[in-house]
Amino acid sequence: MDFKQKIYILLAGGVFFLSLSGILVKIATSPPMITAFYRMFFTVLLLTPYFIKNHRHKAAYFLDYRPLLVGFLLAVHFILWITSIEYTDISNSVIFVALQPLFTIILEFLFAKEDLRPGALIGIIMAFIGTSIISIGDFYHLGDKLFGNFLALSAALFAASYLFIGRGVRKKLDYFPYLFILYTYAAFFLGIGAYIFEIPFFGHGINNYLILLALAVGPTLIGHSILNYSVRYLPTSIVSLSILGEPVLTTFLAWLLLNEQVLLTTLIGGAFILGGIYLASIYNYRKSKMQKKAFSAKKNS
């Protein structure tokens, strides 16, 4: 087995760890705010020694208002997504959250004056059709799910917002210190939220805290770390598209482990949404490639 094959296997493992996120959130019994808080808190706790040892000179960026704002948006994203799982199926929640790349494209079109090319537009239309199919199916079977679907869609919008706003900071900071500062602010805001709403930090049971620790270690640390490691050796488009496997795998695990039934409308609508995201990802890859060529030609002229 050559090195590249090993990287593909590693990438598949990363997607698997990411797909555990919805399952772990579903079996956690703590309030959504506490689940989100401890996911970030444990992550920051585990990353702090490495940050102090290798990146402490980047601590000045804690004073930049942009990471603070982005951390707040990330905190809201987690609250919305984790709460959505209480109201709708895991499959619906992860499929709707996967819409984040399409929301990013829309934000770039509205606020950064980026071109909205046919490939991206078709992807957005397909995702809209898929969203409608799932929502109609949920309304027919159980109208309460619509609220959970709305929360998951809102979580995707906030995820796109923190990625869009954080672009300027990411250009100045390496990926690790950027994420550490972002996670720290997210944990801070989630802790403030729990305090304001008088949600206790303790007394949720040792098994629950172990689940929350697993949420920090598995999907957050291992999953995202593998994805970022894979980008060094594989095309960005491959890594981006591999993430489409997360909602598929999460849906399968929810069916296998939690006996969660999957509606036909979810399967059909999910296929439309994932197909739309695929087209949008290809569009993003081609746009990035064209920008690099244009920059290279300008530099050599």
Structural overview:
Helix 2 runs antiparallel to helix 9. This protein is mainly alpha-helical and 301 residues long. It has one domain. It has 13 helices and no strands. Helices cover 82% and strands 0% of the residues. The radius of gyration is 19 Å and the shape is globular. The longest helix is centred in the last third of the chain and has 37 residues. The mean pLDDT is 85. Belongs to the EamA transporter family. Keywords: Membrane, Transmembrane, Transmembrane helix. It holds the Pfam family EamA. InterPro entries: EamA_dom, EmrE-like.
Rg, Cα atoms, Å: 19 Å
Tell me the strand percentage band.
under 5%
Q: How many distinct beta strands?
A: 0
The best one-word shape is globular
> What count of structural domains?
1
Task: Characterize the main sheet.
Answer: none
The secondary-structure element order is HHHHHHHHHHHHH
The chain-level structural class is: mainly alpha
Uncertain regions spanning at least 5 consecutive residues: none
Distance between the termini: 43 Å
Helix coverage percent: over 70%
Mean pLDDT, as a whole number? 85
Number of helices: 13
